[in-house]
Structures are given as C-alpha cells and as structure tokens.
Design goal:
The chain is of the alpha/beta class and 211 residues long. It is built from 11 helices and 8 strands. It has an 8-stranded parallel β-barrel, surrounded by 5 helices. α4 packs parallel to α5. The radius of gyration is 16 Å and the shape is globular. Cytidine-5'-monophosphate (C5P) binds next to β8 and α10. Homodimer.
C-alpha cells in the first residue's frame, strides 16, 4: 500500500488541527514542520495526537551530533513518531539521529534529494546517491526523494532497496501523484490538500493511491 501523508504547512493552530481532523480518515500520517511549530508552538503535537496517526517532524535536522541529539530528544519527547534529517552533514550526525529515534521507538528519514528546481545545483552529480547510501549504512528507516523527478526515485530505489521512500512534490510543485505512487512507500502532499476548497474531499480523492 502507498501511504498518503498530509504535509500540514499551515501557520494557524486551529485551522491546522481542523484540516488534519477532517482529512484523517483518508491519510496515513501527518508531517509537521517549522511553519506550523514556529507559529503555533509545540502544543500542536498534542492537538494532533488525538487523530491516532503517526506524526512526522520535518525539521530537516542538520547539525553536529550533539546538537542533533538534543533536537531529536526534544522531538520524541514532544510526541512525534519520526523525524526527517539531512544527510549531507555526514554519518556521525545521521547516526546520532538514528540512535535517539530507535531508542525511543521512532524512525528517521534522511533527505536524499529535494524536490524544488534549485535542488539540482548540489544534489545532482552523485551527491543524492551518496546520501542514500549513507542513510542505508547509518540504518536510517528510509529516505525522502523528489516526486518532481520520478527517474531519480528509480535510481535512489536501487540504492535503498526495500527501505521506505517518502516523496514530496506532487500537485503544486508539479509531480504527478499516480506516477509516483507506484514507485514509493508514501506520497507527501501539502498545498494540494490544505489549500483546496474542500481539503477532506481532496484528500479522499488522492487516497486512491492507498491500494
Ligand atoms: O505543498 P507541497 O505539497 O509542495 O509541500 C511539500 C512539503 O514537503 C513541504 O513541507 C516541503 O517543505 C517538504 N519537502 C519537499 N521536498 C523535499 C523535502 C521536503 O517539498 N525534498
């Protein structure tokens, strides 16, 4: 089954909670990042906990091992189930995230390649492949790969094998959900759902990938 993950990049706590609740029957997890946590506070995690869905902290953690440890400790103490980390910081920094996550029964997904046009500047030319390899070697639970470049997902799949691939970039960023759904374990969708006139109806429509 391909999961549908709601990227809740809203800045209003009540609106975010309400949209997540209305979409909950059609989604498999909620991804929360800086826009929502910095605007609404960490209390949003408690608001969302009642949905009974995994909560993914998209903080793209990218620091030295000690700071990564402090960040990941705080993430899992707040009630998140998984964290997204950058891999370019190197194996010791990624391993620290994985250690903390696995100690807490959580998961780490490493950004192998980003989905926006400018990402090709640094991620292409072998870097994304090296980061994906690092994610495997560091025993991360999976990687993040761009829905905007399905060919790249195929290449990264060769490296990570059966590890999880979550993929953002469909809809507003241009990726086609039906093309990508067959290549990955979960598709991450933000604006196409939460900016829709009826977010729940849009989530229901996109939930066709959960087969
Ligand atoms: O609104 P949209 O569906 O484009 O949201 C995509 C989400 O996934 C955003 O939260 C964005 O920060 C995140 N993301 C991404 N590309 C990556 C990693 C994360 O678009 N490679």
């Amino acid at each position: 089954m391909t999961e549908l993950i709601l990227s809740l990049d809203l800045c209003d706590r009540r609106q975010a909670a309400s949209i997540a609740e209305s979409c909950a029957p059609y989604i498999d997890a909620v991804k929360v990042g800086y826009p929502l946590v910095l605007s609404a506070g960490l209390g949003i995690v408690q608001d969302l906990a009642g949905l009974g869905l995994p909560l993914i902290a998209d903080f793209k953690v990218a620091d030295i091992p000690n700071t990564n440890r402090l960040i990941c400790d705080a993430v899992f103490s707040a009630g998140f189930d998984a964290v997204i980390a950058h891999g370019f910081v190197g194996p010791d920094a990624v391993r620290t995230c994985v250690e903390v996550a696995h100690d807490r029964g959580g998961a780490v997904y490493v950004v192998a390649e980003m989905s926006h046009p400018g990402a090709v500047e640094f991620f292409h030319g072998g870097v994304a492949e090296r980061i994906a390899t690092l994610a495997v070697n560091c025993r991360a639970d999976g990687i993040i790969a761009p829905a905007t470049r399905p060919d790249r997902i195929g290449r990264l799949r060769e490296i990570v094998g059966r590890r999880t691939i979550y993929s953002p970039g469909v809809g507003t960023q241009g990726g086609d959900i039906d093309t990508v759904a067959g290549l990955v374990d979960g598709v991450i969708v933000g604006r196409s759902i939460y900016e829709a006139e009826d977010p729940a109806a849009e989530a229901k429509l996109l939930s066709r990938i959960r087969r």
